Amino acid sequence: MAVPIPVAAFQLAGYRQAVANTLYLNFTQTVYRSKFIIVLLWQLLLIVPMAVAQGQMYLDGDDPEQDCGLTLSGKVLDHDTREPLIGATIYIEELQRGTLSDEYGNYHFHHLCRGSYTLKVTYIGYVMERPTLRMTTSTVRNLTLHVDARQLKQVVITGERLTEEVQSAGTLSGRELETTRGLSLAESLQNLSGVSTMQTGPTISKPVIHGLHSNRILLLNNGVRHEGQQWGAEHAPEIDPFVASELKVVKGAAGVRYGADAIGGVVLVEPKALPDTAGVSGELNLLGSTNNRQGAVSATVEGKPASIPALSWRLQGTAKRAGNARTADYYMQNTGFQELNFSGTLGYKKENYGAEVFYSQFNTKLGILKASHIGNLTDLENAIGRERPEQTSYDFTYTIDRPYQDVSHHLLKTKAYWDTGNAGRLEFVYGLQRNIRQEYDLHRASSADPELTLDITTHTTEAVWEHAPVGNLTGSAGVSTIYQNNTYQGRYFIPFFRNFTAGAFVSEKWRKDRLQLEGGVRYDYKKLNITKRERNSDIIRPEYQFHNVSGTLGALYDVGYHLTFGLSATSAWRAPGANELFSDGVHHGSASYERGNRDLNSEQAYNFEASVTYYGNQRLNGKLSVYNNFINDYIYLAPVQPPTLTIRGAFPTFEYKQADAIFRGIDLDLEYRFTPQLYLESRTSIVRARNLDLNDHLVGVPADRYNNMLRFDTDRLAGIGTSDTYFALGGTYVAEQTRVPTVAEQDYMAPPAGYFLLNLEAGTTVQLGRQPVELGITGSNLLNTAYRDYLNRFRYFTDDMGRMLLFRVKLPLNFSGR
Amino acid sequence: MNKIFRPYLTLALFGSLVAFTSCDDHDHEPHDHEEELITTVMLTMTPQDGGQAITATYRDLDGDGGQAPVYTPENVVLQAGKVYNTTITLMDESHHEEDLTAEIREKGSEHQFFFEPSPATLLTVTTTDRDSNGRPIGLENTIQTSSNPQAGKLRVVLKHQPGGLKTDNSNISTGGTDADVQFNITLQ
User: Which residues form the signal peptide (chain B) (predicted)?
Assistant: First the structure.
């Protein structure tokens, strides 16, 4: 559709905020009316080109083609806030008739005949909706629209304030998500404040939230907690970000709603809702990059048969291939990867009930930097002493050699829900996952088999009842279970185990006027059964049981003047993992001997957060959040004496221990608009972590991170037929980590120096005939800076990646022939 | 309602079946299998001028960690000023005795032994075997002991130098370490 010129979008954003504020500030009716007229004007501007394009068009009442006497009426509302949308366009495609909603959001069509109609509902700053309806009698139908996050960023903050939890969260969707296409899940998220990435060379990256990662954060893939071997620092999440239309990060402990392990936060990977209008459509994404010469194709096809309107479906697939990645000066040997993923969704949706089946498969083969496979401490010291990794070739190739990982992940999800009307909504989700991880080592490989295969199957169930609002109270209650079975073949790393977890929670939110209060409580029980072969060949079968209560409390107060204060106290717990209890061996790549501790207790996190949001302003908007995450019995690897003697010499030895720890920090998001099109976006993430028992810093905590981008958005470039054009230039500065443990040596190399990376984003949409084509480019490390990151586990061996330009082409497809 | 849930139940059931055919075999017991464990390094030193062969053995039967490795004898006694023909044997004795020496010899172009006596004058090691590229391997050597009776150490390091890392210039710091053991030596 024709998109209004950005000035309109901006003014409307302010306008919409004004409407929101009438509730609080009692704007006078005059202001209201004058604004209404402005909006009406903009809407007319929008309609006129449409009318021209359509050839002929009638505003309602002008010249009805048929007169059968039925009336269609209702309100146009914001989906989230339920506020009426004034001046929205409602257009009946079959009749080529349109109208505008009035100042109370009402619309009406008269003299309609019986039959099926497709409505096209548009409003500036909102995503267009195309509901279909069947008219047999006069009908009242309310139409709801979703805010278009891509167009009105400052409004998104407002929306969150009104609808979400007090606890801070960051979201990537729309264009912000598009610019990360081609990157891994963790790399996509690292531009959010409070989020960083832990890498193992260029092929493996994991998200870090407020300094915590791996089994201390939870990934929800399409509503199912992602379960693989996530405890491992070099085990990247097996999720295709192309599935997502939104990535959301809940920062800080969030155990009540999401269950065990959400100590540091939660990443939610949300796919787009299934189509709700008949027809077949899709999109094709093509990507290519410099540096590792990555090529990727991702395609989606979705539809809804006109004959069975309750049914809808989607098929999606992604294929990626990349060769050796390049630092500023050389290619890193054996750092290519391949990925082949696909998913399918089938939905059945009636007015009050529905069901959905989702299946996805993720397959990857990823090379591990050859020089990182070392034998002992001397080898590691040699590697640290080298300028560049010891390689037989510093050239490019797509070939993946040993050592490499071959991982596949299957997810089957089924969901059913029932809207009871009076009692609320009941939803049931069952997830089945199987994760098979094969690791191929470098050493004298005598067979083609992997040296280690880990195989874990997980069943998850969740039943949630979201009760209908009672007065000002909304909320939900639910029960969930997890059953897990882990086996392995090859060398010992973690034992066989079975794990059963059950939990129940209640969470309520009360909102009145300017105040929002929320509270929740959860109880979890976990049973862990281990089967392990001891060194003397005896089989032991210890059983562990854990009980835990988590809670959450939060308050949000809107003081007026576009200012909101939030306070929250949340908690979460985590049982020790099988690796922490039972690992026993040399950790390849880090030249250390890791020993489990069979007496570990569960750890419990208490997260306190205070936030200030300044929103809805013409120039400056932002959010400041300060958090304190106390973790009781934090499990960490502590150096112990004596070193372990092996045939390859003595290894420094680490054992899992527990201590109270604290992770505290600041997240700051700022946006400053110089003009409606030109604005500065700034994100700051600062974390401090301490071992309170030793009164020492913790190892592996992200360094201070500052991200600033100057963005310019424009709809049309003069004289060229493009739309949605944007350009952004900025950089990321990561400081040197100066806070490292001093009580006992825990690292073999001092943290690397701070670094600055210059980045660029640009994109536009061109129209080739009737086909829109979205073009984009994302450039990172434009200055080709040679650097090493403290959170890259391969910083002992090699520099990080040099300059990379990622080119994207996206074709939205419509097979319905319209 | 029944009608709706039937297809999804069928699918779920089908999916579970597919996923389960090979995974819930928990009651079979784990068998650890380290692909390329070396537990034993044995030096057999035969005096060139005849006499009893002397062996020096490093053994760590349970692999990395667990029981500490054992040197037999704790102190290896050699004659001062003598030449010994020395062969190295590598074994995996963790489950049953498996001689790995032939495998190393076969992949000699990716492996090399290095010897570091301390003090450096304690003895001189000359490698006599060659890989397919004519470079030393180090499974066969001669040891010339110093003529001065003294005590010292001999460090024996086996390096894995795959994929072309082993060259005429490669040295003890090239590649990854497969074995790094140190024998106490007394010259009489």
Answer: 1-21
Residues of chain A with CATH 2.40.170.20: 267-272+279-814
Confidence bin at A445 (pLDDT 50/70/90)? low
Beta bridge partners of A283: A300, A812
- Name which residue leads in pLDDT, A756 or A146: A756
Longest dimension (CA), chain A: 93
Minimal Cβ distance to A585: which of B19, B35, B65: B65
Q: Where in the sequence is the domain holding B126, given as residue range(s)?
A: 39-187
Angle between helices A153-163 and A6-25 (to 10 degrees): 30
Contact: B23, A390; criterion CB under 8 Å:
no
Looking at the predicted structure, is the pLDDT value of residue B76 above 70?
A: yes
**Looking at the domain A267-272+279-814, which fold is it?**
Maltoporin; Chain A (2.40.170)
- A697 versus A27: the higher-pLDDT residue is A697
Q: What integer is the mean pLDDT of A735-739?
A: 96
Q: What dotted CATH number matches A6-145?
A: 2.60.40.1120
For residue A784, give the DSSP letter. -
Task: For A674-770, list the strands marked E by DSSP.
Answer: 678-691, 696-697, 705-714, 722-734, 755-768
> Residue B106: which pLDDT band, with cuts at 50, 70 and 90?
very high
The residue with greater pLDDT, A68 or A14, is A68
CB B82 within 8 A of CB B52: no
pLDDT higher than 70, residue B23: no
The string of DSSP letters for A37-65 reads HHHHHHHHHHHHHHHHHHS--EETTS--S
Q: Which residue of A has its CA nearest to B177?
A: A375
Over the range A81-104, which residues count as b (16 or more CB within 10 Å of their CB) and which as e? bebbbbbbbbbbeebebbbbbbee
Q: Crossing angle for the helix pair A6-25 and A29-54, nearest 10 degrees?
A: 150
Residues of A in contact with B62 (CB under 8 A): 535
Q: How far apart are CA A130 and CA A116, in angstroms?
A: 13
Nearest to A176, CA basis, from A554, A752, A683: A683
Q: Which backbone phi and psi does A21 adopt, to 5 degrees?
A: -80, -15
Proportion of chain B above pLDDT 70, given as a percent? 84
**Is the Cβ of B15 closer than 8 Å to some Cβ of chain A?**
yes
Check if the beta carbon of residue A734 is closer than 8 Å to that of residue A752. Answer: no
Q: How many domains does chain B have?
A: 1
* CATH classification at residue B83: 2.60.40
Please check whether residue A183 is in contact with residue A176, taking contact to mean a CB–CB distance below 8 angstroms.
no
Range of lowest pLDDT (A24-28, A219-223, A481-485, A493-497): A24-28
Inside any domain, residue B4: no
Would you state the pLDDT for residue A446? 61
pTM given for the model: 0.81
Distance CA A354, CA A128 (A): 23
Locate CATH 2.60.40.1120 in chain A. 6-145
- Provide the chain A residues 756-775 that lie in CB contact (below 8 A) with chain B: none
Strands A143-145 and A705-714: unpaired
Tell whether B61 is within 8 A of chain A (Cβ). Answer: no
A&B contacts, CB < 8 Å: 157
CA distances from A342 to A183, A239, A317, A495 (A): 17, 10, 4, 31
CB A749 within 8 A of CB A769: no
DSSP three-state, residue A257: helix
What is the SS3 assignment for A249? strand
Number of DSSP helices (H) and strands (E) in chain A, helices first = 8, 43
What are the helix and strand counts (H, E) for chain B?
A: 2, 11
Q: Is residue B16 part of a domain?
A: no
Instruction: State both tokens at A675.
Output: 């003009």
**Domain membership flag for residue B25:** no
Main-chain dihedrals φ then ψ at residue A788, nearest 5 degrees: -130, 140
**Cβ-based contacts of B29 with chain A (< 8 Å):** 496, 531, 533, 539
